[in-house]
């Protein structure tokens, strides 16, 4: 079946450090891939997405590239800020009869000033 | 209203009591979902509805029921709450559109439920 595996946290970095959060997936066909972010006390919100191989999603300085050959969608940011502290979820949506999304377990990110 | 609202924001409930969590969206999305979020387990789908009048079971449906009488509302009911249902509950919606698989889900702010 379809699944998403992301690196366990928490991840703690200093401000302005480079960030990578790894995500790999298992799916039949050609899923769409997403990164969602959850700030403290809030619901999830879409950060970026990619719908086909080699697409790069980007938003708020974050980027992720859909790599079909490695079944990966790693999240990167060149210089993190304290305000990026949140929980990040990798997710996929596979073509089918319905629109359900499969989420990874989330990675908590702490940025120290 | 803009987006998805959930009520209550938080609730403490005695075991055995009945509880309904409310969810309303104003985006006219066809599909709606209920998730629970627990530390170390991520988000788990409880129930979903692809369109008004239909519902389906997710990954962890036991002890929960839903109804979808109209497009906007998707209440989640715990018939007899148990402590293991202590969690944060999120409602979400999406609009499949022409091409499935590329649609994002929009989430409400969550309900924090504690069952004692």
Structure characterization notes:
The complex is a heterodimer of chains A (113) and B (116). In chain A, 0% of the residues lie in helices and 49% in strands. Chain A is mainly beta. In chain A, strands 2, 5, 6, 10, 11 and 12 form a 6-stranded mixed β-sheet that branches. Chain A starts with a strand and ends with a strand. Chain B is 0% helix and 47% strand. Chain B has no helices and 11 strands. The N and C termini of chain B lie far apart (33 Å). The chains are: A mainly beta (113), B mainly beta (116).
Element layout with pairings:
The complex is a heterodimer of chains A (113) and B (116).
Chain A: E1 3-6, E2 11-14, E3 19-21, E4 23-26, E5 32-38, E6 45-50, E7 56-59, E8 62-65, E9 75-77, E10 86-93, E11 102-103, E12 107-112
Parallel strand pairs in A: 2-12
Antiparallel strand pairs in A: 1-4, 3-9, 5-6, 5-10, 7-8, 8-9, 10-11, 10-12
Chain B: E1 4-7, E2 10-13, E3 19-25, E4 31-38, E5 42-49, E6 56-57, E7 64-66, E8 76-78, E9 87-94, E10 106-107, E11 111-115
Parallel strand pairs in B: 2-11
Antiparallel strand pairs in B: 1-3, 3-8, 4-5, 4-9, 5-6, 7-8, 9-10, 9-11
Our Rg estimate of chain B from Cα atoms comes to 14 Å
Molecular shape of chain A = globular
Order of helices and strands of chain B: EEEEEEEEEEE
Amino-to-carboxy terminus distance of chain A: 41 Å
Helix content of chain A: under 10%
Biggest chain pair contact, residues each?
A-B, 25 and 27 residues
What portion of residues of chain B is helical? under 10%
Oligomeric state of shown chains: heterodimer
Largest sheet data of chain A: 6 strands, mixed
Total number of helices of chain B: 0
| Count of separate DSSP helical elements of chain A | 0
Low-confidence stretches of chain B: none
Number of strands of chain A: 12
Can you tell me the residue ranges of chain A where pLDDT is under 50 for at least 5 consecutive residues? none
Radius of gyration based on Cα positions of chain A: 14 Å
Computed structural class of chain B: mainly beta
Task: Decide which structural class fits the backbone of chain A.
Answer: mainly beta
Secondary structure: number of strands of chain B: 11
Element string of chain A (H = helix, E = strand): EEEEEEEEEEEE
Averaging pLDDT over every residue of chain B, what do you get? 91
Q: What is the rounded distance between the termini of chain B?
A: 33 Å
């Amino acid at each position: 079946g379809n699944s998403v595996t992301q690196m366990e946290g928490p991840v703690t970095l200093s401000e302005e450090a480079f960030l990578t959060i790894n995500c790999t997936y298992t799916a039949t066909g050609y899923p769409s891939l997403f990164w969602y972010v959850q700030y403290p006390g809030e619901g999830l919100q879409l950060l970026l997405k990619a719908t086909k191989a080699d697409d790069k999603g980007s938003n708020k300085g974050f980027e992720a590239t859909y790599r079909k050959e490695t079944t990966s969608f790693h999240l990167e940011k060149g210089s993190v800020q304290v305000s990026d502290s949140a929980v990040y979820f990798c997710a996929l949506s596979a073509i089918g009869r319905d629109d359900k999304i499969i989420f990874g377990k989330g990675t908590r990110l702490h940025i120290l000033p | 209203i803009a987006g998805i609202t959930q009520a209550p924001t938080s609730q403490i409930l005695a075991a055995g009591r009945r509880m309904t969590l409310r969810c309303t969206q104003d985006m006219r999305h066809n599909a709606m979902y209920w998730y629970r979020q627990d530390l170390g387990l991520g988000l788990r789908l409880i129930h979903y509805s692809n369109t008004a009048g239909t519902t389906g079971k997710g990954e962890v449906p036991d002890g929960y029921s839903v109804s979808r009488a109209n497009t906007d509302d998707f209440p989640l009911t715990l018939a007899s709450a148990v402590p293991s249902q202590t969690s944060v509950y999120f409602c979400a919606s999406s609009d499949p559109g022409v091409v499935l698989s590329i649609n994002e889900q929009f989430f409400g702010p969550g309900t924090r439920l504690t069952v004692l």
